[in-house]
Target: Putative phosphoenolpyruvate synthase regulatory protein
Amino acid sequence: MKRTAFFLSDGTGITAETLGHSMLSQFSGVVFEQITLPFVNSHETTAEAVARINEAAERDGARPIVFSTLVNEEHREILSRCRALILDMFAVFLGPLEEELGVRSSHKVGQSHSIRDHEAYRIRMEAVHFALDNDDGARTRHYDMADIILIGVSRSGKTPTSLYLALQFGLYAANYPLTEDDFDDLRLPKALLPHKDKLFGLTIDTERLAAIRSERKAGSRYASQRQCDMETRALEALFNRYNIPSINATELSIEEISTRILAKTGLQRRLQ
Amino acid sequence: MKRTAFFLSDGTGITAETLGHSMLSQFSGVVFEQITLPFVNSHETTAEAVARINEAAERDGARPIVFSTLVNEEHREILSRCRALILDMFAVFLGPLEEELGVRSSHKVGQSHSIRDHEAYRIRMEAVHFALDNDDGARTRHYDMADIILIGVSRSGKTPTSLYLALQFGLYAANYPLTEDDFDDLRLPKALLPHKDKLFGLTIDTERLAAIRSERKAGSRYASQRQCDMETRALEALFNRYNIPSINATELSIEEISTRILAKTGLQRRLQ
Model:
């Protein structure tokens, strides 16, 4: 069975997409073609969206699913005439919220980002540049400013996680790769010792690590099962020895790794 | 008026937060204390959540607002007893979806990320490393692999936007800073010329640019109004001359910049 799902928004479409992905993932037996229609904020763009939705209905022989975060009432009225199941976030939640809060909502378009004001932008930008400057152990002298220092073997997901922590939560996340040299004597590198309380470990299953590394350097010692096995074992021993909190990132998305780190460390985000 | 808002989830909480931020932003007159409670996936954690919500109700003298994406029915039943307005995403949308699709949903916890599987993880990881390697004009020899090359003056948001495009959409985004040397003769740098079709410009208002640069190097020529004015004017002239598409990023969040770039270029994301 195939269906088309539309994520419709007067803004970026991120809220509609996030909501939609979440709901659709509950129907693993259905294949959805997913189309995001952002910036639907005029009569014309709404009419275009309706046309695309109706075309999909025709083509699929079944009603598309439309996740909508449109705010404007006229545009929602135009949309309501299309041949689809419309899941309208504002219709469902805004009424109860207005009643509870005892005020009318602004019905303003494109308000969804709390991260649009200048101060928030600055925090984010600084955090991103901190993550870049302190990626992969490139520099260690600014670790006193770090909120967290991720450690793990090469290709265990430290870099994307650091960047996600910076972009999403405004956190100052450094990362430092542990290598064979560090495993020889099972000691933390000198640069990390003064910041032991900020260290957080990422572990990964040996097979998965070897697979990831093989995509980069197939057939190399670096990507061999034996080498990956040695590194992951030594890493766990090191974490145990120094009592460093860690999570196994093997089956987790970057979002999951990041939010689990927050939950486990109690680290407060700098951005809401 | 102050209220506490909870974003409650059995997973990362990202869907509940995104939805919640979107809805709450419609009530600009109300101050919300926002608390995310992720990984609520047992009787115990649900009971803890209920306790925290009830404490907030007591403290505020008003019912908290709870955005919930809990899937498990028993946990939702426990949650329903707390003193709050509960906006339950699954209760509202799952029924109509099941009816439309003619199948029961899996009611499985933590399914929200389409980006959790290994192939998607690989795409994301490669895209992030591409963005890092090709940040700030560091290298230009891999531009044939780029999906897009962002250009603009220093501190106009190129780096965070490149990273967001990589993390969120899996796109290979390079960025290259244009400087005084490039403005002297209003010619594109040689490294960019063969890739003209991939160029996308970010512009920014002079005052805002000066403010951002001043946070970094207050009182410098680099941060002066005069310098920023010269650069932003020359940049626009360059974009006009070469017919390079661009957007003004001054009042936009990184999400907005990124999604507008997609909308304007028609670039297809590599990740859903």
Q: What stands out?
A: Chain A has two domains: 2-101, 115-265.
